[in-house]
Structures are given as structure tokens and as C-alpha cells.
Amino acid sequence: MIEFFAYFVMFSFFKYGESFKNKNYTYQLSRIKSPISHPLFFGLDTYEENVEENSIEFVYDPYISSRLKAKSISKRGFEVDEYGFVHNGKPYNYFDKNIKKIILLGGSTVQGIKLKNECTISAFLEAFLNQNSLEKNFEVINAGIGGSYSPMQFVRFGLELIHLDPKMVIALDGFNDYWHSFSASKDSADWNGIAIPNRTNYQMAFLGADQNINVEYFILKYPLISKIFWNSSMATIKIFNLINRNQNSDFAYTENPWPKLSLDIMKNIYNQNSHAIFFIKNWKNLNGIANANNIKSYFFLQPVIPISNKKFTKQEISKYESHFTSRQNIDKKEYEESIRIFYQEAIDLIDLDIANEDSSVFNNSFADLSQVFFEIKEDVFIDNVHYTAFGNYILAREILKYIASDLDINLINKTNLFSETCLKTN
User: Fold this and answer.
1) Alpha carbons 198 and 170: distance in angstroms, whole number
2) Global pTM?
3) Across-strand partners of 102?
4) Cis peptide leading into 306, omega within 30 of 0?
């Protein structure tokens, strides 16, 4: 009887969400496989059919929200090593002092989507470096984590990655910092249409201030608890959050002061709600940590649709449109307008920094790669922000041009390592 009531409440709440074009609620729920057999469970056993072929497991981390689970492996054979890093086809030599290590930070575009390990940006970049080096002792450690963005990256780098004694750290970012600032997304901690900076959906869910608790994460983390009971608890929290937002209670229901502080910082110090300021300051913080440890840093703004002026193929257009078909709570026009504003604000802040030559962080260490695919006729986007293996190849080749001189690399050989294995990946 209790489970029947829970089913009724959850079904009613999702129907309520659908009336406001939030159909991804039911879409998410239907993807979850029921942990135990029960006649009232809807979406029964659908998770395995809908899960991404290359999806790998994540685990909770108190400092950076989530990270890749060690030794996890996808259906396609995409592997994570024992330390939680996506390797480049063979194990990293983490503790070999003769190896010149480069850390590549980023989100799922760096981590790799629908690829083999040998076809990620880090794998291509490592191959290019060693092809042009007599010593052939470079390793590019793939520190990409799906959903990761600048605050998570500089915290992780400062706490962990500097101890690997890298020669260089590279950040390839842009989209995830925007996405976490886009209040319509389900990955922003939203309050009355204003996104709270520098927090993730996991952390805000634990605070009870998030607009969408990640159902999939909780069910997979606690698989012995019935799907319906989790759904009922989720419904209670959602309704509770909804009531509190309507009351405009000024975060009275949470003891964490950061949401109010962050909004007041935007209002009273920055005089705007832009997250681009937080994004660029996080990059500067990363640079400061790197400098303090004699590590060279580089920052690259990643390509994304619609920022890229590439002439898109029919396949790319179709994949881009399907991004919005499966996320009907996202208005395409609003997304395109807001991401253009975010990117331009970020570039303006970097240009302002470069203009101050005496104290510039980004002079000779930043490049806008958002137009790197401009002349490419082939498919390079598999959605609005993830790339084919060929797209990763192009990005790695472009990054190499900027970092080569700092690594004493003479680009005498052609970067022609795009293998048949990677060609068949996408």
C-alpha cells in the first residue's frame, strides 16, 4: 500500500513537471533499471538498454563532488585505471622520475565519449609529443572527469595532481562552466532563475537546495533499496524545494551560507550574475598553484556548438537537434544566446588580463580554440560539445603547437598518427 501511494505521488509529480515542459523527468526515470523485481515498478529493466555504450562508473568525492571509479570499464572496452584515470592505451608510469608528465584537465570531452582509450585528446597529444621527441618520455595524464569544471579542477590539482610532479598542466574548458551557470540545466544549483556559482548538482542535492536530485546516481549507489521508495523520497524533496522557492525564503531551509553569499557577491561586488568571472578567476587560481610548484600552465577555450563557425554536416546538425529533443526543458534559443554571452564575457576578461602585460596570467598561455574546426568538412561533433576521434586528433594537434616550445620540442615530424582503430570508433 505504501509503495502504491509512492508510485501515485511520483507519477503525479512527473505529470506536473511535464505540464511545464520538463519531460526529461520521466525520461530519466524510465532509464533506471529496477534493482529488485516488483510489479509496480515502471521502466522495468530498461537501464541496461539505454545506458551509453561507453559510460563508466562514478564515485562520490567530498572535495570534487565525483570522480571516475577505479578499474571501471565500459561496454566498448573504455578503461579506467587503478587510480581513477582514463589511460591512453597502456598504464601510466606515475612514479617514474624520468617520465615528463603533463596533466590534461577537463570534463567529458577530455575524459572521452564513445571512444577507445587510444583515441582521446590526451592519447593523441602524448603520441604527437613522443613522435617529435628523441627521448620519447612524455606522458599526458588524462585527468578529465565527466561534468568537471574549473572549481573542481583547481581543487583537485592543488590537492592531488601536483604531487605527481608534472612539468605542465593544461585546462581545456568552457562548456561545463557555462552549463553549471545555466539555470535551465539540471546541473546548476538554481534559485529563482539565478544559478549559484562553484557548486555541483551532487553537493546542492545534499543541501536540499538543488532543483533536480540525480535519481540515477542514488539508485545505482544504493541498489538494494527499491526504486519506488527512492522515487517517493525524491518526490518529497522536490515538493519541499518547490514550496520553499515559491515562498522566496532566502535559503532559510539550508544551513549552508554559500548560496546567499554567492548571490550577494554577484550583486554587490560584480554587479552582475555572470559566472564567467568565477570561471576565469578559477583559471587564475589554477595558474597560481602551478606557479608555486614550478609547473607551466596553459588554458584553452574549447569548441562547442553554436560558438563554432564550422559548416556543420547533416549528421552533426541531427545530433545537435537531438540534444534538445531529449531535454525538452531546455529552450534552444535561450541556450544559444546565453552560451554566446558566456564565451564572449570569458574572452573579454582574458583580453583585459593580457592587456596588463606586467601581471598577466594568460599572456602566452591562453588560446581560444572555439574555431579550431572552422575549415574541417568531416564530422567532428557528436553532439553540442563532444567530439569524434578525428575531432580529438585535430584538437591535440592544435594544442601541441602552443606547448611545444616550453617542452623543448621541435615540430619536425608530421602529426599523422590518426589510426584506423580510431577512424572506426565514431
Assistant:
1) 20
2) 0.80
3) 140, 168
4) yes
Across the chain, mean pLDDT equals 79
More confident residue, 404 or 23: 404
Mean pLDDT across 5-27: 49
Supply the pLDDT for residue 206: 47
pLDDT digit string (tens) for 258-316?
778 888 999 999 999 999 999 999 999 999 999 999 999 999 999 999 999 999 999 99
- Describe the strand order of the beta sheet including 100-106 as a list of residue ranges: 138-144, 100-106, 168-173, 296-301, 366-368
pLDDT of residue 340: 97
Nearest-angstrom CA–CA distance, 288 and 118: 32
Identify which of 157, 168, 159, 95 has the alpha carbon closest to the alpha carbon of residue 125.
168
Interatomic CA distance for residues 55 and 78, integer angstroms: 8
With 0-12 / 13-18 / 19 or more C-beta atoms within 10 angstroms meaning exposed / middle / buried, residue 26 is middle
CA of residue 188 relative to chain centroid, distance: 12
Indicate the SS3 state at residue 69.
Answer: coil
| Contacts for 65 with CB less than 8 Å, ≥ 6 apart | 147, 152, 200, 202, 203
Q: What is the mean pLDDT of residues 327-338?
A: 89
Spatial CB neighbours of 69, under 8 Å, sequence gap ≥ 6: 56, 57, 58, 59, 80, 84
Q: Which three cell numbers stand for residue 308?
A: 563554432
Residue-wise burial string across 301-333, b where 16 or more C-beta atoms lie within 10 A, e elsewhere: bbbbbebbebebeeebeebbeeeeeebebbeee
User: Mean pLDDT over residues 195-205, rounded?
Assistant: 65
In 98-226, where does DSSP find H-type helix? 108-111, 121-131, 150-159, 175-179, 201-207, 215-221
Cα separation, 260 vs 250, whole angstroms: 7
Most confidently modeled of 18-27, 322-331, 412-421? Answer: 322-331
Q: What 8-state DSSP symbol labels residue 162?
A: G
* Residue 106: partners with Cβ closer than 8 Å, 6 or more residues away: 121, 143, 144, 148, 153, 171, 172, 173, 302
* Contacting residues for 305 by C-beta, under 8 A, at least 6 apart: 312, 316, 320, 381, 384, 385
